[in-house]
Amino acid sequence: MVIEIAHFRLAPGKAAAFFEAMVTAAQFLRTAEGYRGHVVGRGVEAPDTASLIVAWRSHADHVDGFEPSEGHDRFLAALEGLYEGEIGVAHIEAGDAAPACIAAGSSE
After folding, report:
1. Coil, helix or strand at residue 27
2. How far apart are CA 46 and CA 94, in angstroms?
3. From 4-8, 50-54, 92-96, the region with the lowest mean pLDDT
4. Would you call 90 exposed, middle or buried from its count of C-beta atoms within 10 A (0-12, 13-18, 19+)?
5. Which keywords accompany this UniProt record (predicted)?
6. Fewer CB atoms inside 10 A, N or C side of the chain?
7. Contact criterion met (CB below 8 Å) for 40 and 52
8. CATH number corresponding to 2-103
9. How far, CA to CA in Å, does 34 sit from each of 21, 51, 56, 57?
10. Predicted TM-score (pTM) above 0.85
């Protein structure tokens, strides 16, 4: 299992709208091949940021399957104008089990 960690810098005054839009955007994650769950939240030390953590079956499911897909385009379109700059993305190898916060159920 691979965990994707995506960092967003929220547009000023758009935090509530970002999290509302994430509910819609997440439907495109859920239908992706290899999707295992996700959690999203606002930065504690930096409340102008948000992080999306997604569990994928494999790195390829994310970068070769989801990223070039229409679902990914629709995911980004749902969040358009609600964050600034580039989305910072990193992947970590998680072995066979998703973290409990993801395995217990996805949240927006």
Report:
1. helix
2. 26
3. 92-96
4. exposed
5. Monooxygenase, Oxidoreductase
6. C
7. yes
8. 3.30.70.100
9. 22, 20, 5, 5
10. yes
Q: Is the pLDDT of residue 101 over 70?
A: no
> Is 87 in a helix, a strand, or coil?
strand
Structure token digits, residue 91: 């992947």
pLDDT for residue 16 is more than 50: yes
Phi-psi label, residue 85: left if phi above 0, alpha if psi -120 to 50, beta otherwise: left
Instruction: Report the length, in residues, of the chain.
Output: 108
Q: Write out pLDDT tens, residues 71-100.
A: 999 999 999 999 999 999 999 998 876 666
CB 94 within 8 A of CB 1: yes
Rounded CA-CA distance 56/90 in Å is: 13
